[in-house]
Amino acid sequence: RVKRGWVWNQFFVVEEYTGTEPLYVGKVSMAPACSHPLPLSDEGDGSIKYTISGEGAGTIFLIDEITGDIHATERLDREQKTFYTLRAQARDRQTDQLLEPESEFIIKVQDINDSEPRFLEGPYIGSVAELSPIGTSVMQVMASDADDPTYGSSARVVYSVLEGEQHFTVDSKTGVIRTAVADLDRETQDRYEVVIRATDMAGQLGGLSGSTTVTIVVTDVNDNPPRFPQKMYQFSIVETAPVGTAIGRVKAEDSDVGENTDMTYQVKDEEGVEMFKVTTDSNTQEAVITVQKPLDYESKKVHTVVVEALNKFVDPRFVDLGTFRDQTIVRVSVLDVDEPPEFQPPSNLMEVQEDAHVGSVVGVVTALDPDTVNHPVRYAIDRSTDAERMFDIDANTGAIVTGKVLDRETAGWHNITVLAMEADNHSQVSRTSLPIRILDVNDNPPELATPYEAAVCEDAKPGQLIQTISVVDRDEPQSGHRFYFTLASEATNNHHFSLLDIKDNTAAVHTQRMGFNRQEQDVYLLPILVVDSGPPALSSTGTLTIRVCGCDSNGAIQSCNSTAYVVSATLSPGALIALLVCILILVVLVLLILTLKRHHKSHMTSEDDEDMRDNVIKYNDEGGGEQDTEAYDMSALRSLYDFSEIKGGDGGGGPGEGGPSGNPASELHTLPQWVQSPDLDFSVFRDYICKKVEQADEDLSVPPYDSFQTYAFEGSDSPVPSLSSINTWSSSSEQDFSYLGGWGPRFRQLAALY
């Protein structure tokens, strides 16, 4: 039988179909296979049943089982899905058997221009330098169209400028934005909002379009020079401001931004360069004006400084726009202050001879008040720098004179500080250091460098060198030292030794005879006269001690005394130990004797301590009366003995009677004598004495004996007779002291005591 096969036509369906009826897509059918080039349809008797499966089968796409017609029942969108893949089956309606194997076919969604171009990478921000030439590329924008670029012109996009076309253009095909003018000025407008439109259908009528806003920032270039807001600035500063003090700040304005505003400042005039310095504050871009040299109101009251500002980074493309610098004038007014005196000229070295007399003028210092008032100046020396007061200064003239005798050898330099102050305001004081050099005069004779001692062998030969001597001189002549050596006059008859001046400030002593005998003379004293070169020439005599010594055959000295013996080191150890033992025994005996003597002395001292003696202490001055309590110790007057107790307490024994302690009358015959009146009460004095005794007994530091003190001596010129009874040899007569009552109120207490 004739074999059949599938007959396929191209299936297309238009997107976005808006009709009410299903959209016819196409037809599937079977035809017999033969050599005829054209397919033949089935017989149409309904014996074949057509079915489909795959994407959208039964939902989007429906097929007529008998005719094989396919319809689309839903609205399709090519931008979402461009084609659908389905499979077709042909079955025998009676047996439901496949007449042919399944066949796959595709339904394509046909595009229409239903999508506008879109800018997917927005928002767009670009930048361009100001003053860029026309046609400078700023940036590129690109729009995307979802329509099929292979079908028609739906996806062909062109670009145009909707807003901002007076400053920028856009390439219609590439979307590159370029400048349309050459005078973009950031200082006038620093950003632009440009609207770019993209249209499909190649811009033809009926095409869809989309737009975006592009922000274009105009970047800065250094096209503006610095400018000072003012042509003159004024500042003031005191004349005592130290170097480096900031006077003020000025700033030049620059319309540019960033590093294009970085500036440097400089002083342009010669006077300003000398007196002032300008630096740039990197943070604020201000010019800081500082003092470079000390100011002086009296010399110049106003300074004019020309300050110039210039850009640090200059763009060579804009040099033709003009000079990128500006100048301004700064007036600096110097304010007057009260300044201390200034030394004129500054202190220099002064010199004075060391033999200058006290009061000799060393030099004169001068200081002047720099102020307009010109106050008088007074001078003084800072004594902390001249503690020994070697120099004085005239307070009015500033003349420095010697205050003491100078000695260069003690102090060759003096550094004193001189003060200069205003006469009416000592707080305004200035100081200067003044070095004074003491010039040398020849006032010290030369002396032998050391107390020379030499030795000569007994068998010495004539001309043998014994000693080379040198001298020292504390002076320092400008031409240097030159010393002359000779034997002193008392050694002119010397025939033993000779002295040779070597002419280099040293001399040599040689033997002059053959051999010496130390038994005859073991020591020779050789006086040497040394003279300096002056002026005036000074001299001194030194003695060289020469000992005659015994020497061995090689000339080595063995002994230098006439009773020569050598304590050789050949003593045996036993002998040395015996010698040390003897010395130790002698030391022990000496210590024992000293200990015994000290013990005996302390024993005698203890016996002397038991000897209670009375000490009479005489004061050769006259008291000032009972009101005078500061001339002497009043408590001593109150320490009176109760003679009844001293005499043994027998109730009134006479001065010549004996007592229990031997012969107290003999010990008391020189004491003042009086008769104890029965109406006088001595209990006050007795209690006082007892209290003092108790205090003395408790105090271990007081001596172990009593002391009797009397204050009864009267001056030699007193018009009244003496009260003392020390010279009264009578031991039994009574004395009448009633006349004391007539001496006045100042002696009332004394009269009551007697």
UniProtKB/TrEMBL annotation:
Which InterPro entries does this chain map to?
Cadherin, Cadherin-like_dom, Cadherin-like_sf, Cadherin_CS, Cadherin_Y-type_LIR, Catenin-bd_sf
Tell me the keywords, alphabetical order.
Calcium, Cell adhesion, Cell membrane, Cleavage on pair of basic residues, Glycoprotein, Membrane, Metal-binding, Repeat, Signal, Transmembrane, Transmembrane helix
**Region Disordered: start-end pairs:** 648-667
Q: Which Pfam families match?
A: CADH_Y-type_LIR (PF01049), Cadherin (PF00028)
Q: In its UniProt record, which GO terms are filed under biological process?
A: adherens junction organization; calcium-dependent cell-cell adhesion via plasma membrane cell adhesion molecules; cell migration; cell morphogenesis; cell-cell adhesion mediated by cadherin; cell-cell junction assembly; homophilic cell adhesion via plasma membrane adhesion molecules
A cellular component term (GO) from this record?
adherens junction
All residue ranges annotated as the Cadherin domain in the record:
42-119, 120-228, 229-343, 344-448, 448-565
Q: What is its main location?
A: membrane
Q: Where in the cell is it found?
A: Cell membrane
Instruction: Give residue spans, biased composition: Gly residues.
Output: 649-661
Question: What membrane topology does the annotation report for this chain?
Answer: Single-pass type I membrane protein
The membrane spanning regions, by residue number, are: 575-596
Q: Which GO molecular function annotations are given, in alphabetical order?
A: beta-catenin binding; cadherin binding; calcium ion binding
> Which PROSITE patterns does the record associate with it?
CADHERIN_1, CADHERIN_2
Q: What does this protein do?
A: Cadherins are calcium-dependent cell adhesion proteins. They preferentially interact with themselves in a homophilic manner in connecting cells; cadherins may thus contribute to the sorting of heterogeneous cell types. PB-cadherins may have a role in the morphological organization of pituitary gland and brain tissues.
Q: What is this protein called?
A: Cadherin-22
